Amino acid sequence: MVFGGGVANAVGPNTMFLATLGLFVLPIVEETGFSRTTVTGAYSVAAVGMAIGLVIVGQLVDRFAARYILVPAFLLFSVSLALIGLMPPIAQFHVIPCFFVGFFGAGTAVPVARAVVTWFDTTGPSQSGW
């Protein structure tokens, strides 16, 4: 469970998009012709999408099992991330999938954390000898 949670966080939105965007600002600017302001503005839109998504995910985590949130969230996060690469280099079209990357990415970290904590509370200490 802990290994799976680590893998999920390694390929989640924080490491795949939000934390690494600073490395790719100049290549994105050169490739698309966007200004640096547009590229970092798309990052801000993703952060707003994540803030909105976290409010919704917080309530869903309390009602449903983690897998019912994680599977659709990772699938839709992956599709949104792929759409960023498929969008034409028009700023308005680039911002829309960035919002969804943040929005659906919000459904990845919180359910993983809850699943690991729940697993550790119920079975972890007995298996580790504590």
Secondary-structure element series: HHHHHHH
From the alpha-carbon coordinates, what is the Rg to the nearest angstrom? 17 Å
Structural class: mainly alpha
What are the segments in which pLDDT stays under 50 over at least 5 consecutive residues?
Answer: none
| Approximate strand percentage | under 5%
Shape, per Cα inertia axes: elongated
Whole-number total of structural domains: 1
Total beta strands: 0
Averaging pLDDT over every residue, what do you get? Answer: 82
| Main sheet summary | none
| Terminus-to-terminus distance | 17 Å
Tally of helical segments? 7
What fraction, in percent, of the residue positions are helical?
A: over 70%
Question: Would you give an account of this structure?
Answer:
Helix content is 87%, strand content 0%. By secondary structure, it is an all-alpha fold. Helix 1 (2-10) packs antiparallel against helix 6, helix 3 crosses helix 4 and helix 4 packs parallel to helix 6. The chain starts with a helix and ends with a helix. The relative contact order is 0.19.
